[in-house]
Amino acid sequence: MKKLKIYLDTSAIGYLDEETSPKEMADMRELWELIKSGEYNAVISDIVFNEIGQNKNANKVETLLDFIAEIPYERISINEEIYMIAEMVKQNGLITADKHINDRLHIGCAINGESDIIVSMNFKHLVNVTTIRGVRAISILESNRNIDIVSPASLIYREGDDQNDG
Question: Which ranges of 95-152 would DSSP assign to H, the alpha helix?
Fold first, then answer.
């Protein structure tokens, strides 16, 4: 089976070092171990590095960059096509405020980079039904691929879990 290509946005990576949310941090660290072991192909964009670099806490910046250095990943640079996809997101009524351009660019990077999944902890703008459905439609139009937006917990499997229950 082909490995899933997962785009990691800044909010997801930030939870690698989020002591105030121990469960979410544990989920993200477990996903990180799966990426390190080769279970998933990771994609990270210039937007992530820019957003991490804007953090005023130098220790947090260093910690997150150290985490990123642990995994193999494809790096996506912003190009005109990514800006066009981000504009489509806005024109389709998703994430319309100009101050949230980076959220639209994350989507553009994921679609342009042919990712299967966007991993995010941004429930307000990304991990919600309206955005997920809209992004799927745009992704199919732009890349003829279906893309999902999920939290890290959706990609981890714990020993003893039975995926066939239900």
Answer: 101-112, 129-143
Answering whether pTM is above 0.90, one says yes
| pLDDT tier for residue 41 given thresholds of 50, 70 and 90 | very high
What the chain holds in terms of domains, given with CATH numbers, is 5-155 (3.40.50.1010)
Rounded Cα distance between 128 and 49, Å, is 24
